[in-house]
Each structure stands twice: as C-alpha cells, then as structure tokens.
Design a protein that fits this description.
heterodimer; A: mainly alpha; 16 helices; 4 strands; about 70% helix; B: mainly alpha; three-stranded mixed beta sheet; two-stranded antiparallel sheet; 7 strands; disordered C terminus
C-alpha cells in the first residue's frame, strides 16, 4: 500500500487539496448548523438594564457568596489539574492494564475506559471531599462524608455504562472505517443521545412521585397544568424528586417521555409564586425543544472531539486498539476543558430562553426576581461572579437573570 | 496430619424416620448439656488464652477438654441438622459418624493469640453465612446453608429414610468450618479457619461425575485497581447478561416444549443456552472475585480462567421436564444459601485482595463451590441437563483437566474445586 493510500485510509494524513476543500465545506456547514441552533426567541439586540447587586443582595451577602464560591472554584480547578495529571500518567502507562482482560479488543477497551474514569474519580476525591466540607460548613448541604463517597462510588455505574457504550460504538466504527471513524461518530452519537434522551426520563423518575399524587400540592399541580397549557406543552407530567439536596428542577425527555422533575426541597422552601416561575422555566425548555437542541449541539461538538481523539490515538494504532483508549480519554478531557467556555455558552443560551419563556407565560417579573434572589441566598451563589467564572457557568449569572426579568418588564411596559 | 482440625465423615446416609420426625425434641437434653458445659468452657477458654499467651502453647489437659467440647458441639449440630443419624453421646468422645479429628497441642503465635477475637471476625462472618439465620420481618427464616439442607433433608429423610448425599456433604462442610472456627476461637490452634471445601474433610469419597462442572485455572493474583472498582466494572456485563438472559428465557421456553414433545432439546438451543451459562459463569466469577481478568462478552469456551464445562445434550424424562420448575425449588433454596456464602466470600475477598493483591484460596474455592452449584441449578432449570444439581462441596475430578500454568504451588488450589 502506498503512503498516500495509507494516509487516505487513515483519514487524518497530510492534508490534500480535496481534503482541505472538504474540511472548509464541513466547517462552513458546522457554522451554519451552529448559527441555527444558536438562535433563540429572545428578541435580538435587547440590552439588559444594569442592576446593582449591592441593592439586590447587600454587601454582606456579596462578600460571603464571593468567598464561598471562590473556595469551590479553586478547589474544582485543582481537582481538574490533578485529574488531568492522573490521566496523563494513565495515558502513558494505562496500556499495561490490557493484561487484566480476557476480552477481545473492544471489551478490553471498555475496561480501560472505565478504569480511566475510576482513576479520575479517585484523583478528584480529595477535592470533592474538600468541597463537601466547605458546603457543610456553610450549611448548604447536609449529606455525610461516608454517604457522599459511597453514593459517588456507586454513582459511577452510570458513567461506566455510558463510556462502555460509547467505546463500543467508537471502537466498532474504528474497526470498520479505520481512520475515518470520527466522521461517522457524530450522527451515531447523536442517535444514541436521542435514544437516551427518550429513555432516560423513565430512569430519572424511578424514585419520584407524580406531583398531583403528593399530599398538599394540589394548587401547585393545578398551576403546573395551567402553565403547561399556556406554553403549548399540555399534559406534561410533573414529578417530585425526594432527594434531600439543594433546591432544583429539570426538564427531561422527548415527545411522549417529556416531563418535569422538581426537587421536594424546592416545593418546601420556595413560595407558590417562585415555584410557578420554576415550573414555567422548565416547561419553557420543553416548549422550545431544548433536548433536541442539546442533541444538535452534542453532534456538533462530537465531530471535532472525535477528530481530536482520532488524531491523538494514531500513534497507538488508532482507536480500534484498546491500548489507545487511555490516550483517547486524555484527548477527550483536554478537548472538553478547551471547549468548556463554548459548551457553557450554548447551555447558557438555552437557559436564558427558558427564563424568557417563563416570563412570557407568567407575566411575573417580580416573581422571577424574587426566585433568583431566593435561589442565590439558599445556595450561596455569587450573583455577580468574575468574568472567567461567568464564562464557565452553564446558567446565566443571577444578576443577568434578574436583569432579563427587568428587561422583559420594561419591554412589556412599552407595549 | 497437616491440618489441625479435620472433619471425619463415616455416616452411611441412612436415616430412621421416627428419629428424624422428632429430631429437635430429641436433641433437647443435648442443648441443655451443651449450655451447661458451655459455661465451664467460657472460663476455660479465657484461662487457655492467658496460658497460651504466656507459655506459647495450650496445656494438654485444657486442649483435650476444649477439643471434646468442640467435638460434642459438632456431634449435636450434626444430629439436629440431620447430617448424622445416631443419637450422640454426651462426652464428646470420638467415634460419631460426623466427627472431628484434632492435632495435638502445638506452639502458637502469641500475637495472634492476643488479637484472636478481632482476627476471628472474618471467619465469624463466613460462619454466619454457613450456619447463621436471617432475620426477616421479626421472623427467623432459614437462610444459611446448614439450616437449608436440614429443612430440605428433613422432608427427604422422612420420605426416603435416607439423606441425599449432596445435602449431607454440604451440611458437613458447614460443620467442618464451624469446628475450625471454634478451635481457633478457643485457642486450640493458631491455624486460621480455612473455608476451602477441598481441605475440610478427611477422606470424603468423591461423588459421581456431573455433566455441569467448573474448571478453575486461576493463579489467585488480583489487580488491586480492578478489584477496587470490580462491582462497577461488571456493569456493562450485567447489562449484556440481562439482555442475553431475556433471549435465554425465550429459548428455554422453546426448549421446554421441544423436550416435552421429543424428550430432547434441539442441538442449536442446547448450544445457545450452554453459551449463556458459560457467560453467566464468567461474569459471576469476575464480579465475585473468583477470577481476575475482565471477561469477554461471548461466553466462548476456554476463554476464561473459571470455565463452566457443559456436557453434551442428553435425553430428558418428560415428567421431569413438565414439572421442572417445581422440582427445582429445593435446589433453588440451596442455591440461595450458597449465594449468601458467595457474597460473604466476595466481600471478605475484596478487602483481602485490596491489601494482599491476591485472593485467599479458601475464599476463592468456597465462592467457586457456590458458583458451581448455582450454575448446575441454572443448567437444570434451562434444560441444559436433566441431572439434578449436586449440592455437596466435593466433585469428581475432570478427566480433561490438565495442569495449568496458572496453578499456584498449593496442590488443591485449582481444578478440583468445582469440577
């Protein structure tokens, strides 16, 4: 086989004119798709009115929340650095662990992938415990250390299953398509994400109870039904998650499996008006098909991520070989860290649209502002963090959300 | 005699129906005497511990006194649980059909004497799995191996006037371990109790060959990293096993109809179900630390250090096929009891393997025994074999078993475990 043919087979050889054209066309398509996904129903060119965090929260809380989040941010950063270092060591030495497998190449790859995740978990554990200590000290969470570690350990079963499935897919593609597997990876992973998006609501609500079957929640259930009708997603079931943790909620599922899950702590600690905004926000995610949009973003990010992995694993014989899996993990994590600001920007965009949908539905900007203030104080969230932290956040900052509510109010007043 | 405590089985399996029927009541005088003698033993054990700590060995008279108590306790337990039939004497003298042979008093390690109670905790956990009870909703239900075989053996002995060989040997295995634990706790020996079923007995005759057997070709070495994450690493296998299990269940239903009509399971179905059982064996062996490497996903024969050997398909008795699920109930009860042993051995083995980087052979072989029985039950249920599961701890050696490069120096470490 000639060198050129080998390069063509490997898919990532020295760029040739045709490949360059294909790459440019691909990048153009990527940009077009990203532009389409970036679009939201928030009016273009809307300027957020400036709100003073000192007025909304007071200097004392701002100092406290900044200090609280600074510790967590530094701790998380250190955790990432140590985990990354552990992955570098694993990428260099992890291939020895192939001796611990009696399975074929893909099975062995799965083992190495899972062990990589396990090593990352172990490396991050001290920082995780430090964060827990800090949160307990500030009375934000109340879970015990042993329970936290045990839950974290067994919580790895989901990621272990997911990485096994991902490696089954990627290594299977690599065995068939050799160096070009990464091109096929994006649609395959998108299809897989769609499937998971469809099925996961059943798993996520195993321990949850329907809102309308819980005692004392009749009014909230009626609110949820009315909001769902108004947002064009009637009959969306709302479940209550009994996890004794920070107040939160989520919208999950696709089509017939779509549902909203609200933590019991939110229902208990927030008033009716605030809960209505939360419900409207989550229903807004469903109204604007954010699960599908997230799958679209995933597909867009998988393409370059898989390309990076394919490039990084070439020296180990490509992803078809299990020895390449530790390197693939390292490349994937490096890509994830590098792409984090962009990824976070996409989710912030969706969250902002859900906030806007909630305002459009409830017509209650004061309720929204009260909710965000309450959320910030309940979880000691810095309402106005430094730019670098805001850029890594998957939600708009609290002040941005408050400002969005005020912007909606001003706009409604003009009408 | 290398092992300080050995069980000697000379029981002929015959049972007297009347004695079986009233067994517990008949044993009441023994319970009373055991309790009274036990009070004296309590103080003597403390004295024995102190003397051994000072002198390094147990005095002969004390050793004999305590040995006789252990022997007597085993006699009584054997009688109550139908492992033997003859009414035992009250002296604990040798000669009972289920007997214990003790080595003379020997020098002991003083450190292990000092920390004996703490050191005995893992052995006591195994003991609980073998002879303990399980408390479910304020009721004592038989969950241990000894209790299960006693209850099942009671019915069998009443009907047939004979204790099934497998059940008798399973119960004897539990008693052999209990005798070792008592001897260790009473400071009669510093040899740690060995849960290996292959070293529990003195000259126990081997049973007939069984078409479903286990070949263990494992070197006991364990990777600490994979041991730590073992339960999680098995997740993809458990998912695949569950999916394959659905197909196997459907195949078994088809096989059931086929066997009912033709007295045979079609060859293709037999192979499919055998592959499923092999894969199940690989996954269970991996999950419960009976083997070290990550298994493959196909259940290919010869691909794993712990291998289920499935015999060729055989003709079935149609009546046995028709009532297969009902007939399997006693075996399922014993499998559940062995499951407790499997879980206990794996839990203790997890800690041991994390510290030592190797699996203790006794725990490995005890777990392999439980696995072998469980797979025999599954094979019986799925119509892979017409032969009823054999619950005894020993088995005939496989003629095909060849020496393996994985074999540790210990001669009983492999092959015969679950063969």
């Amino acid at each position: 086989m000639s060198a050129g043919a080998r390069r063509a087979r490997d898919g990532l050889g020295r760029p040739r004119p045709l490949a360059v054209v294909a790459l440019v066309a691909g990048a153009l398509l990527w940009a077009l798709a990203a532009r389409a996904l970036w679009h939201t129903t928030i009016p273009d060119g809307m300027r957020l009115p400036h709100a003073d965090p000192h007025t909304a929260f007071g200097a004392g809380f701002l100092r406290r929340s900044a200090s609280y989040e600074r510790f967590l941010a530094i701790d998380a950063l250190l955790g990432v650095v140590v985990a990354f270092a552990a992955l570098v060591v694993y990428a260099r030495r992890g291939q020895r662990l192939t001796a611990e497998s009696a399975a074929g190449p893909i099975g062995t790859g799965m083992l190495l992938g899972m062990l990589g995740l396990g090593i990352v978990w172990l490396a991050e554990l001290p920082f995780d415990l430090a964060a827990l200590w800090w949160e307990r000290r500030h009375d934000v969470v109340h879970v015990g250390y042993v329970e936290h570690v045990v839950n974290g350990f067994f919580g790895l079963s989901g990621p272990f299953a997911a990485i096994s499935l991902a490696l089954l897919l990627a290594m299977g593609l690599a065995r068939v398509l050799r160096g070009w597997w990464w091109v096929a990876a994006a649609p395959c992973f998108a299809a897989l994400a769609l499937l998971l998006g469809f099925v996961s609501p059943y798993l996520l609500t195993i321990d949850s109870a329907p809102l309308d079957q819980r005692p004392g929640t009749a009014r909230t259930a009626a609110d949820a039904r009315a909001l769902a009708r108004r947002e064009g997603v009637p009959d969306t079931p709302v479940f209550v998650d009994l996890v004794p943790d920070q107040p939160n909620a989520a919208a999950v599922g696709l089509g017939p499996t779509r549902r909203v899950v609200v933590r019991e702590s939110l229902l208990r600690r927030f008033d009716r008006r605030e809960v209505r905004v939360v419900l409207a926000h989550e229903l807004g995610h469903l109204q604007h098909r954010h699960t599908l949009k997230s799958v679209g973003w995933l597909a867009l990010f998988v393409l370059p991520a898989a390309g990076v992995v394919a490039l990084a694993t070439r020296r180990r014989g490509g992803l078809a070989r299990p020895e390449a899996v530790p390197v693939a993990l390292l490349a994937l994590v490096a890509f994830g860290v590098a792409a984090q600001p962009l990824l976070a920007a996409t989710t912030r965009r969706l969250e902002a649209e859900a906030d806007w949908a909630a305002l459009q539905t409830t017509h209650d900007p004061a309720g929204a502002r009260a909710l965000f203030r309450h959320l910030a104080t309940a979880t000691i969230t810095d309402p106005d963090p430094p730019v670098w932290r805001a850029l890594l956040g998957d939600h708009p900052t609290i002040m941005q959300r408050i400002e969005l509510a005020s912007a909606w109010e001003a706009r409604a007043g003009q009408r | 005699m290398n092992d300080p405590v050995k069980l000697v089985v000379t029981d002929d399996l015959q049972r007297t129906r009347a004695s079986v029927c009233f067994r517990i009541v008949l044993a009441i005088p023994h319970f009373v005497w055991l309790a009274i003698w036990g009070i004296a033993v309590f103080f003597v054990v403390i004295a024995n511990g102190l003397i051994t700590l000072i002198k390094g060995r147990s005095p002969d008279a004390v050793h004999q006194f305590l040995s006789e108590y252990v022997r007597y306790a085993v006699h009584v337990q054997a009688y109550v649980n139908l492992i033997a039939d003859r009414y035992p004497g009250f002296s604990g003298h040798p000669g009972y059909p289920i007997d214990v042979r003790f080595a003379p008093s020997q020098q002991q390690n003083r450190w292990t004497v000092l920390f004996r109670l703490v050191l005995a905790i893992p052995a006591l956990l195994v003991t609980a799995a073998l002879i303990g009870g399980t408390r479910v909703r304020a009721q004592w239900t038989p969950g241990s191996l000894l209790a299960t075989v006693a209850v099942l053996g009671w019915f069998s002995s009443l009907v047939r006037a004979r204790m099934p060989r497998g059940m008798r040997d399973a119960g004897a295995y539990a008693l052999a371990y209990v005798a070792q634990v008592l001897a260790y706790l009473f400071v009669l020996t510093d040899r740690y109790p060995n849960s290996d079923p292959l070293v529990a007995f003195d000259d126990l005759p081997l049973p007939e060959d069984h078409p479903i057997s286990l070949e263990v070709d494992d070197d006991l070495r364990r990777s600490r990293l994979t041991v730590f994450f073992r339960a999680l690493l098995a997740v993809p296998h458990l998912i695949w096993l569950a999916l394959w299990g659905i197909a196997a269940l459907l195949a078994a239903i088809v096989a059931w109809f086929a066997a009912l009509l033709t007295a045979r399971v079609p060859d293709g179905l037999h192979h499919f179900l055998a592959a499923y059982l092999r894969y199940q064996t690989h996954v269970t062996a991996y999950l419960f630390l009976i083997a070290n490497p990550f298994p493959g996903f196909t259940g290919a024969a010869g691909s794993f250090p712990v291998e289920l050997v499935v015999g060729p398909r055989e003709a079935h008795n149609r009546w046995s096929v028709l009532f297969r699920a009902l007939l399997a109930l006693p075996a399922l009860a014993i499998a559940s009891a062995y499951g407790l042993l499997l879980a206990t051995a794996a839990l203790l083995g997890w800690f041991a393997a994390l510290v030592l980087g190797r699996m203790p052979i006794g725990l490995r072989n005890a777990a392999a025994l439980a696995l072998r029985y469980s797979e025999q039950v599954n094979a019986y249920l799925l119509l892979v074999t017409p032969r009823y599961p054999y619950s005894g701890p020993t088995a005939a050696p496989q003629p095909s078993a060849a020496p393996s490069p994985y074999l540790p120096p210990d001669p009983h470490a492999a092959v015969t475990v679950g063969a």
